[in-house]
Amino acid sequence: MDQKKKDSIEKAIAALKGSSDLIEYEEKAKFQNCRIIYMKTLADSTVIQNSVLPSLKQEQWYTIAQLKEIIKVENMIITNDTDVIKEKILTGYIMISLHENPLPCLLINANKTAARAISLPEVEFSVVGPKEAFVESLETNLNLIRKRIPIPEFQVKELEVGDLSKTKVAVLYIEGITNEENVKTITQRIKDIQFDQISDSSFISQMIADNHLSPFPQLLDTERPDRVASVLSEGKVAVIVDGSPHILLGPTTLIEFFSAFEDYFLNWIISSFFRLIRVFAVGFSILATPVYVAVLTYHYELIPRELLNTLVASRQNIPIPPILEALFLELTIELLREAGARLPTKVGQTIGIVGGIVIGTASVEAGITSNILLIIVALAALASFTTPVYVMGNTIRLLRFPFLLFAQWIGLLGIVYCFCILLTHLLRLTSLGRPFLEPIFPPRTADMKDAFIRLPFSLLSKRPLELRTNNSVRFSSRKARENKDIDE
After folding, report:
1. Suppose 436 and one of 109, 321, 429, 483 were both cysteines; which one would form an S-S bond, judging by CB atoms 3.0 to 4.6 Å apart?
2. Where are the transmembrane segments (predicted)?
3. Helix, strand, or coil here: 97?
4. What pLDDT sits at residue 168?
5. How far apart are CA 453 and CA 460, in angstroms?
6. Could you give the CA distance from residue 376 to residue 308 in angstroms, rounded to a whole number?
7. Residue 172 φ/ψ, nearest 5 degrees
8. Residue-level pLDDT at 221
9. CB-based burial of residue 458 (10 Å sphere; 0-12 exposed, 13-18 middle, 19+ buried)?
10. d(CA 486, CA 248)
11. Taking the domains of the chain in order of start, what are their residue ranges?
12. Separation CA 246–CA 220 (nearest Å)
């Protein structure tokens, strides 16, 4: 064998020997002596003991090609490439080479995957519907989706991102339905990522977003397999990141962040009512405190006389202006939220409940804040929790502070001005090149059937226009109306 190739493989193995979990030994088989190398923390020892060693010692073989035929393990590779050898050993492969000729060598997949069991959804929990959530294993997550879409058109494109982490990323779509432009756009953006370590799907979401300066998430993330299967059938693209229990979906719209997937498990009238409550709650959460500050600072003549007496009585001993009073309570709420989120579950719940009651009561009795503003801030915080998607809830929490500052600046006119800035930003925002405010702008009445309200399934015969799908028809509405019950 070429001495240069032999030196290269020895150099590659030497680079791995600095790690104490590298196993290397000579196996004296019946017909050939061979060299076995693997990482004990990555390779499954049962594959070695049950499949590899019995074949080496009992079967008749003389070459690497013959060895490959007798070992009954999937995903085996014969290669001369030292870079491939290093990469595969570091992903759980076993390397076997002849004693005299290190190259070519046989790489046997014995990857040992440690993953938690499938559990209940924590962020998108629903009373009705499936109770499965994604885990950190890419293969397990693909299994959860494939069993819901058992068709050959369901395609998976696997990529690798991260110079150090070598993270596996899978792009999912249904061929014949999904617009190829969306698939090409998201695939190309993932390939263009230049970063050394990718730990979670949130990394990918930030790096492939259309506008990196926007506080709004431009890809929807979910932990529910049923939701992923549903939106794939609509023509969207999904992105799975190995090691992350959340999957990205795109292109998406602003309205989708206020729609829980449980809405489809309930009667359409009830689910539409809940959606309208969420939209109202978001508006109330953003505007309630700024309107209080604007009215008490500039427009107190708009307050009815009966309510004005109550407000005056609640603020007669407050030494600070409404803006400082509001900022104090808003920041206190945010501190309680962060403390509750970072502490262990039982301690966090106690901090949130006891801390809110104690601080709120003490601040009113001390004359720092009024009891009316305390009620408004508490209701606004409660309303912000109705957002089904956690990342959008964080954005709603942030938006209250610019509105507060504009309200202090020029009152209600400042709130309107801040709203115009926000609306302009949303009008310019896109998700994978698609309008983020659709179906509001551009106005598409056909997509309004599943926006602020959800109409019955019999009326949802077309896929969303914003996705520009290759096949826009989900089912024939005419045939659905013709299929009457046998008794009718």
Report:
1. 429
2. 276-298, 348-366, 372-391, 403-427
3. strand
4. 92
5. 12
6. 16
7. -115, 140
8. 93
9. exposed
10. 43
11. 3-109, 138-252, 264-435
12. 10
Burial of 200 (0-12, 13-18, 19+ CB in 10 A): middle
**CA distances, 475 to each of 149, 318, 334, 461 (Å):** 16, 63, 47, 5
pTM over 0.85: yes
Q: Which helix (H) or strand (E) holds 134?
A: none
Residue 472 and residue 210: Cα distance in Å, rounded? 25
- Residue of 412, 326, 341, 406 whose CA lies nearest to 373: 326
Question: Average pLDDT of each block of 10 consecutive residues along the chain (488 residues)?
Answer: 69 80 82 85 85 81 84 85 86 85 86 80 86 91 93 94 90 95 95 92 94 94 94 95 93 93 92 94 94 90 82 83 91 84 68 71 83 89 89 92 95 95 96 93 89 90 90 78 54
Q: Which sign, positive or negative, has the C-alpha torsion 11, 15, 16, 20?
A: positive
Q: Give the CA distances from residue 339 to residues 217, 354, 357, in Å, rounded to whole numbers and listed in that order.
A: 24, 12, 15
One DSSP character per residue, 327-369 reads: HHHHHHHHHHHHHHHHS-HHHHHHHHHHHHHHHHHHHHHTTSS
**Is 324 exposed, middle or buried (CB count within 10 Å of its CB: 0-12, 13-18, 19+)?**
middle
End-to-end CA distance of the chain: 82
Pick from 263, 267, 227: nearest CA to 246: 227
Paired tokens of 48:
């070695």
Tell me, what amino acid is at 270? I
| Residue in 277, 266, 262 with CA at minimum distance from that of residue 126 | 262
Both tokens assigned to 174: 């249904």
Closest to 240 measured CA to CA, from 152, 119, 146, 177: 146
Q: Which backbone phi and psi does 344 adopt, to 5 degrees?
A: -55, 155
- What confidence score (pLDDT) does residue 353 get? 65
Q: What is the DSSP letter of 111?
A: B
393 φ, ψ to 5°?
A: -60, -40
Q: How far apart are CA 249 and CA 111, in angstroms?
A: 29
Angle between helices 390-410 and 268-297 (to 10 degrees): 30
Q: What is the DSSP track for 183-223?
A: HHHHHHHHHT---S---SHHHHHHHS-S-TT-SS-SSEEE-
State how far the Cα of 378 lies from the Cα of 357, in Å rounded to an integer. 11
